[in-house]
Amino acid sequence: MRQKNIRALNHRPLATNPAIEFVAFSTVNHSKPHNSCLDENVVAIQTSRLSPFNNNIVTNSPYQGFNLGFHVGDLPEQVMNNRQLLLTLLPANAKIQWLEQVHGSEVAKITAVSSQPIRADASFTKEKNICLAVITADCLPILLISKAGNEIAAIHGGWRPLAANIITNTIGKMDSDVGEIFAWLGPCIGKTAFEVGTDVRDVFVNQHQQFTQAFTKHTTDKYFANLQLIAQIQLAQLGVENINILPECTFSNTDKYYSYRKDITTGRMASLICLR
Question: In what order do the strands lie in the sheet with 195-197?
């Protein structure tokens, strides 16, 4: 039998709607889509600040677009409307589990959707029609999926959760072998925009010298940090080899994405993944 090679989390824009990015889980070179046809098992979405429903109101509001965060000062009814519209892009019976993200290292196991946000910065599930979500506006969204297409996770990868080993904590909760896990790294503040102090660099370099390559000297006591590379290194150290990256900078592309570091008062995007 010909070996099955999986191309996981291959980013492609939805052809009919450039305002929203879909993540496709696809298989190549397989004889049968048996336990590997992730297209059939998983839906994953990365939103932007652009509404996929063409319902943007032309105003000077810093939240203009498809803001999904309640905590940023936007009108609650507008955020609720956006979240309801988001549901229409998911499988018919799917519900979204939102998190109260605190830049920590807690990972929530989701067996049923709560109407209230769960205090954690990552979540995982093996249940169908539970859509895991993380919201970002510069931090790194990370989505994980097992090769069998029966286990998923979503991670809020700010520098503090990454430093606190949230990727390790999340994968440790999953049943799949690390070699059977595929990762997707979404849009975040880029490697030439995310300025940090020596203290942040030291947190990572003290964990492993390999992290020195994720920091570029900027001034005497400032560095540019590469969040996507930090996550790549951590995933590789754990044994995750199948990693796909969407290399877009939120800070440099605020026509498309929200950026807290650039604008302070702004909205939030969502990265979502769901078993069906």
Answer: 195-197, 222-225, 215-219
